[in-house]
Amino acid sequence: MAILSLIKTPDEFLRKKSKKVEEFDARLGLLLDDMSETLKKAHDGIGLAAVQVGFLKRLFIVDYGGEYIEFINPEILEHSENKLNYEACLSVTGREGYVKRPRKVTVKWQDRFGEFHERQFKGYISYVIGHEFDHIEGVLFIDKLVEKPKKNVTEAEAE
Ligand code: CO
Asked: Could you say which of 22, 115, 118, 132 is catalytic?
């Protein structure tokens, strides 16, 4: 396995839309293994999209409590109302901030063998999936920053 180098802003590559994965072959497995290795080494990272390491493929990996889930050709079938989430990104140095994301998502995706899965995710993992899904569309969290909520304003009111 290899550590891949991270593409960072303002590189326009991050703005490209990724393409559907058609081949579920050994090369795909190798890319996913390398991405896992890369994410493991990036200590504060919890998700990584292929575009961030130079591949315009619709896939990302997410650290789900120590277990990596590989989302290939993901589709968000349903989502709840938005909540504020404080975010950062391995591809964006020196900026963090609040973004609105659904706190619950139902995702359909394929694994590295091409098998389909469907599942609902709640809470923090839902925000991570939203962030990574944006990457495959060429969208970054810095495009969606909102003002820090004032004291005594609930998340619902801040929407
Ligand atoms: Co990111």
From this structure: 132
